[in-house]
Amino acid sequence: MDFLTRVAAAAITLFARFITAVRGDWRGIEPVPRQRVYFANHVSHGDFILLWTVLPPRMRRQTRPVAGADYWLKSPIRRFIGRDVFNAVLIDRNRESRTDDPIAQMAEALDGGASLIVFPEGTRNETDAALLPFKSGIYNLARARPSVDLVPVWIDNLNRVMPKGEFVPVPLICTVTFGAPLHVGADETREAFLARAREALFSLSPHAQGNGR
Amino acid sequence: MTAPHIDLLKLLSGLAAVLVAASIAGYILQRRLSPDGSNAVIENLNDRVKAWWVMIILMGAALLFGRTGIILLFGFASFAALREFVTLTDTRRGDHWAVAAAFFVILPYQYYLVFIDWYGLYSIFIPVYAFLLLPIVAALRGDTDRFLIRVAEVQWALMICVFCVSHVPALLSLEIPGYEGRNLLLIAFLVVVVQSSDVLQYVWGKLLGRTRIAPDLSPSKTVEGFVGGALSATLVGAGLSWMTPFTPLQAGLLSLVIVLMGFFGGLVMSAIKRDRGVKDWGHLIAGHGGFIDRLDSVIFSAPIFFHVVRYWWSLT
């Protein structure tokens, strides 16, 4: 990692802290360097930045977000942030035109020793629902690499910091809550696993705990 | 070195000595009674001592940077407090521009006005201009759902976190005959009285506390703790009259006002926390709660202290 990307990473995490005073709540796991797939709710482009910010610095290097190539290759600045600073695993979300299999790309990154950040809702949630239904990707990944810990991560309040369509963030306190790791059962069906993973993620949200606003 | 620096150094070294003693006592108590961190009272005591160290170091930094340092310090405190406050409100998309303006326009401008000493504007900027303009910004977005509650919350957040807090650095602009260039010490006086009142109320409460003063708001506050803490903090304030323009009697009376406002301010802020269903305002420092948890007594006493001193002592 060269100097410029280090400076950019430091500036981005500092800005994230300034706006959100973000705090990690390590409820189900310890912040130790162990290979994991973090799966989180997705409301904004800042989601993986917040998750990345609360990781201990040594773990950040090893943790790669999985993101849509269409968004992150669109302009030079996005390409720099997505590919160079965060070392994202860029996947083509268009089923018709893609040449690489996203699951194979993610499995390859895991085999290379990286941890991943994925958003199983598949796209940013711009509805009033707390969580959209999960796409199959996380199930396929869990089947492809069954021994890796799948860790649910609830990112809270970021949707209020920067609602859809706004370009000035409002400073509000955010929290990133890590739940207990999951693994796919030997004979667990796709639907059962996706429902279980979604429930595990939702249970970390303030909506589920009855003190949400 | 000029006069205020010497007085401030005296005060800081005195406080540092008290804190060294408190830290040693805390360490011994922890080793003997709470080696595994299980005794909540002792852990809490040590947390408070640490928070005090942070405050002393910040005041020392203000000593080095003077007026600009103080204004930046309290400007940042306002920012952090406002961030905590707005997090607990019901603001929504329709308030986005009003809230963004509160953080990025009104807050910096209020501190700029304090910096350039424009008393006529900084004393009414938020109560008049922000009060009238922010609801207009919110109304233009067209979302009428719970409109009154939302605009009231934003205004309250600004009054508490920006307007009241900015009256601490505003003490620098008072012109008291015979006290020129020493206004930094007024801030030190206010902060020390407020904080010793908090600590002494806690100590008296732990020693003699029986009768709860407001069981629904703050179960740890007792009549004995309040009376003992208020009286002893008033004595502390009277004893600090050497660094103020006041006689010992005046310093004691002003301290009593500060202590009473701080105490009741703490109750008001507890009521808000209860209403929102939280225990602390935030999590700025692990185990210490948020910025507002540390600032609540100063918030309520600063504007009153400022205006009383301005009315009876200041030329401006």
Please tell me about this protein's structure:
The complex is a heterodimer of chains A (213) and B (316). Chain A has 213 residues and is α/β, with parallel strands linked by helices. Chain A has one domain: Glycerol-3-phosphate (1)-acyltransferase (3-Layer(aba) Sandwich). Chain A has helices at 3-20, 47-54, 57-60, 69-72, 76-85, 102-111, 137-144, 158-161, 190-202, 206-209; strands at 23-26, 36-40, 63-68, 89-91, 115-118, 149-156, 175-178. Chain A has a seven-stranded mixed β-sheet with strand order 1-7-6-2-5-3-4, sandwiched between helices. The N and C termini of chain A lie far apart (41 Å). Chain B is mainly α. Chain B is 75% helix and 0% strand. In chain B, helix 3 (96-115) runs parallel beside helix 6, helix 7 (184-208) runs antiparallel to helix 8 and helix 7 packs across helix 9. The interface between A and B is medium-sized, with 15 and 23 residues.
Overall structural class of chain A, as computed from helix and strand content, comes to alpha/beta
How do the SSEs of chain A run, as a string of H and E?
HEEHHEHHEHEHEHEHH
Supply the helix-strand structural class of chain B: mainly alpha
What's the number of helices of chain B? 10
What CATH architecture label of chain A applies?
3-Layer(aba) Sandwich
Number of domains of chain A: 1
How is the secondary structure organized here?
The complex is a heterodimer of chains A (213) and B (316).
Chain A: H1 3-20, E1 23-26, E2 36-40, H2 47-54, H3 57-60, E3 63-68, H4 69-72, H5 76-85, E4 89-91, H6 102-111, E5 115-118, H7 137-144, E6 149-156, H8 158-161, E7 175-178, H9 190-202, H10 206-209
Parallel strand pairs in A: 1-7, 2-5, 2-6, 3-4, 3-5
Antiparallel strand pairs in A: 6-7
Chain B: H1 3-33, H2 40-87, H3 96-115, H4 119-122, H5 125-140, H6 147-170, H7 184-208, H8 223-239, H9 248-276, H10 291-312
Key words describing this protein structure:
heterodimer; A: 213 residues; alpha/beta; Glycerol-3-phosphate (1)-acyltransferase; 7-stranded mixed beta sheet; 10 helices; 7 strands; 16% strand; B: 316 residues; mainly alpha
